[in-house]
UniProtKB/TrEMBL annotation:
Keywords: Coiled coil. It comes from Pinctada imbricata. Signal peptide: none annotated. It comes from the Eukaryota. The keyword Acetylation does not apply. The keyword Protease does not apply. This is SKA complex subunit 1. PANTHER family: SPINDLE AND KINETOCHORE-ASSOCIATED PROTEIN 1. Belongs to the SKA1 family. GO terms for biological process: cell division; chromosome segregation; mitotic cell cycle; regulation of microtubule polymerization or depolymerization. It holds the Pfam family SKA1. One of its GO terms (molecular function) is microtubule binding. GO terms for cellular component: mitotic spindle; outer kinetochore; spindle microtubule.
């Protein structure tokens, strides 16, 4: 019996937590009632979406089932010249893979993440892509 070869490990990006200093630098109007923990919990949730997406993108075509093949094709279609070397997710990935609500509060959290330099938005072709900004 042939042992199934494991694919080489896939690099899965993840967003870093914000620090208390980061949070304190956020203007009051952006925060509203959002707490420091709300933001880092949101990062945990968003990281699930990045993990799932890049796990699928890291698979060989022969490993993909029908659902994941469709996802793979969708992911590829969302890439543009502006997303080269960027790790990003879109609203659909967020809805599908994590418990992060893209409601008013959720959008405010995204604004805070942009403000704190954890994420940036790449817009194009009518879609907003949420790309991870690597913190060094």
């Amino acid at each position: 019996s042939k042992k199934q070869k494991m694919s080489k490990s896939v690099y899965v990006p993840s967003m870093e937590y914000i620090t208390v200093d980061d949070f304190d630098s956020v203007p009051k109007y952006m925060k509203g009632r959002i707490t420091y923990n709300n933001v880092n919990n949101a990062i945990d949730e968003l990281n699930k979406a990045y993990k799932e997406k890049y796990k699928i993108l890291g698979m060989k075509p022969s490993q993909l089932n029908d659902v994941n093949r469709k996802r793979y094709e969708t992911y590829k279609q969302l890439e543009t010249k502006d997303t080269v070397a960027e790790y990003f997710i879109v609203d659909g990935d967020v809805k599908e893979f994590c418990n992060f609500k893209l409601d008013r509060v959720g959008r405010n959290v995204l604004t805070i993440l942009r403000h704190c330099g954890r994420m940036k938005e790449i817009r194009g072709n009518g879609r907003t892509r949420y790309a991870i900004v690597h913190v060094y």
